Amino acid sequence: MTSDHAEDDVDSEMSSLKKLLHGASVGFVLSFVAYVVMFFVKLFAARLLGSEQFGLFTFAQTFLSLGGMIVGLGIYGGVSRYIPYYKERGEHSLLRGYLRFVFTWPLVFSLVIGAIYVVFADSITAFFDYPSSFKTALMIIGFAMPFRALSKTFINILAAEKQILLEQTLKNLANLVLLAGIGVIAFYDVSVLGLVVALGLSLVIISVLGAVFYFLYVNYGLSGRSRGEHEEWLRFSLPLFFSGMLSFVVSWSDNIVIGKFLDPQSLGIYSIAFSMAAFINFFQSSFGTIFTPIISESHANEDHDKISFLFTKSAGWIFGFTLPFFLIMALYSEEILRLFYGAEYTAGFIPLIIIATGFVINVSLGLNRQILTVHKETNFLFWNDVFIAGLNLGLNVWFISMWGIIGAAVATSLSMVLDNLIVHVKARRYETLGFDYWYMTKFVLAGLPAALIGKAVFRLPLNDFVALGVSGGVYAVAYAVMLIALRTFDDEDVRILRTVEERLGVESRWLERFFEYIT
Question: Which among 253, 191, 59 is positioned nearest to 138, based on CA atoms?
Fold first, then answer.
């Protein structure tokens, strides 16, 4: 019986691991597509508008994010926790009541915040001493706020249902609309306001499509008997709201302080550097989206061993995916900025390296916030974010006054790493969380030599773009060869690869020998 029980536990862990990998792989592929599309949006916008006008667009996005954080009231943070929990326990009346709560509150508050943006657009523009065109941009953002609230609601419900394909489709569609807006700007020589209009239009479109996806693929049915626990939901959500506001300070205070004390051109350069470095984080986001619903189900069944297993395995995978891209940014930052965005953006190469370093350290600490969210430790997250937000804002004001956008990068990276480190220490009180250090070290041992080989190839007397492509290909091949030579992958990795092989209907003696060799 003990042996059978152990086998059941292993099968259960592997089943959850497969779910995690499947959801994360779908999220990864579509997030990568979204990043590529957004890369071209920012590339063309930065080229066509110039760093100053692009800085104005970035500032408009900052206010959209600020308003979205306020209207969400922290409610979105509970969707991936409560929906799987109520479904797993069969509490359908509570599920319906919670969905009404999720739809109603953000929409009401979005109307209020949107109205404030429209009415006070002139005063906000004057405070930052920005051109009058920013006033019009802020009014457009105000009218778009209700659609932003609806789109976020649908996206979070789809994520809670592990409908990652549909969730990522909505996000990709928004970026495609922005790319179309860039085309209009290029063809008709429209100002930055054309791109802000495209941003608002993208929110309208994904709200409508989100509603279609909901009724076709989810549709819990809100018309039945419902029961509300608004006090508990608010008690859970409001700390996340304040925590989210403080996270906004951590994530966007660099933009706000740069916008206040420096010029739009500096903000435009910093925005490009930050967006490139933030690419590193989408691997963690891809896993995090599906990680929360899965561990929420495990928590409902009190299966703590499975949570610990998934945490350790996901941390190793995320680090392995992230490291090679970090090394590219560390070694090629100035060349990439010059080749793709133009010489005026090369001033952002040092901030790019600093921010990328902060992201890779943050990623290596694992998915800790999700652990505390499942355990309803939202009060702790709130007070931790109070501390981090205050520290981040103070560091930004201090460092930006001394070092400009380099100071903003240092402040952001320090705050990011300290935040996840504190949350990790707290999460260890609830779950046994560990790291496979040797597994992660092998990625470093493979990545560093491969990156140096790629850098050497880049210095060959070739066209810059050709050299970048050839060196990137050599780097990727060298990295893969080094990983295999170091026998990086373990039995769980191979079992997942074999599952993928079976699903694809591929039967190959070569693949079997390869699987045997890498373990």
Answer: 59
